[in-house]
Amino acid sequence: MTSEKTGPQSAFFVIADISGYTKFMSETEITHAKGILEQLFGALVPAIRSPLTISGLQGDAVFAFAFESDVMTKQFIIDFAEQIYCAFARSKEKMQINTSCGCGACANVDGLELKIVVHYGECVVQETGGRQELAGTDVITAFRLLKNTVKERTGMDAYMLVSCDALRKMDMKELFSQDEFYTEDIEHIGELEYVVRDLKQAWERRRGSEQVFVKPEEELLMEEWAIPVTVSPAAAFTACTRPDMRAKWLGADAVDLLGANKGKVEPGTMYHCHHGDDIFPFEIIDWRPGEYVTGRYNLPMGLTMYETNELVSVGDGTMIKIRFATPKGGNLMGRLMTGMVKKKLKSIIVPDKENRINRLKEICANWLAEDASLAPDRPKDVGELIGAQG
Question: How far apart are CA 354 and CA 21, in angstroms?
Fold first, then answer.
């Protein structure tokens, strides 16, 4: 993590804290307990991507932050909080399924849970033991919010707590209902208002949903597009999904957003791309921020076509892989006319292919020129972060 500024900076602070950690470590076999926790941290760390930067491990928690100027979409932090939890839950579930060990550690993995605190405020970057760390009252407040009464009030042991300071800055207050708001009296800080969202529900939604992903080996409408850009996968994901950016590189006159969940773009959201008098509806079906997004085009005669934008970290940037599946389904007439529909789609997309690719590259290059933090960070492994604590 680097910063050229020396004064206070505005940032979002994200803490992923494993609850039940102390009890688990004290009551189970140390060798197996250590391996289990390393696996869980090993799932959390790679899930935290740019513009979030990992500051380090704080005992049983991962502390990350993103400077306000680096957060390009207002819902980014909420999306990634859910994704971080799902990475944790997926790792824990795999351990429970794949182990045949009857030791106390392996038998009590289910007692470990994750809570995520999100706060916003000011901080300064300071040098400590050759490392750069964050300091300031709002950093302290974020950690103080870990000690709360959410479990007693709601019964939740896996949740996302977002301070209203962060919520106002993201302009996402409408996403939460009134019964999700609480206040907490924080020692030496005062009363703070926040919202709470059950992360187990987010996991159950994703766990139970079928992945929709156009694979390279499937029957494609045309060859895969491989577009190298010089920004991080998270920034590339934003370029592919933010309505104004998508309109720009597609060369659309405008994009209308329909079905957004109180302003939050997610599966089920519909983009209406205007190209002259023509409108092309594109519905988000499945996505993992920073990894891929799959959408569906609803075509005439009941035909549908899926498009996947996959983000792969390579070298000093990201490879954006765009794949269009061959149109399928439809009524009898649609199935008879599939060949003609494919020809029509190619006549629209192929002549504009290079223009779309160049516009997408230009968007990413301009972002990077304005803000070097959009470049991919060198990934840290768990051992490196644990070593940094010592």
Answer: 52
Distance CA 77, CA 80 (A): 5
Q: Which residues pair with 54 in a beta bridge?
A: 64
Superfamily of domain 225-372: START domain (3.30.530.20)
The helix (run of H) or strand (run of E) holding residue 82 is: helix 76-98
Within 13 Å, how many C-alpha atoms sit on residue 249's CB side?
Answer: 23
Task: Report d(CA 165, CA 98) in Å as an integer.
Answer: 42
Distance between CA atoms of residues 94 and 40, nearest Å: 11
The model carries a pTM of 0.70
Q: What are the extents of the domains in the chain?
A: 9-208, 225-372
Contact, 169 vs 152, CB < 8 A? no
pLDDT in tens, 128-171: 766 668 999 999 999 999 999 999 999 999 999 999 999 999 98
- In this model, does residue 353 exceed pLDDT 60? yes
Q: Name which of 143, 105, 197, 139 is nearest 17 in CA terms.
A: 143
Which residues are bridge partners to 118 per DSSP? Answer: 14, 162
User: What are the CA-CA distances from residue 92 to residues 35, 86, 218 (Å)?
Assistant: 12, 10, 32
What's 210's DSSP letter?
P
CA-to-CA dists, residue 292 to 57, 237, 240, angstroms: 28, 7, 9
| 303-314 vs 328-329, strand pairing mode | antiparallel
Rounded CA Rg of the chain: 23
Domain 9-208 top-level CATH class: alpha beta
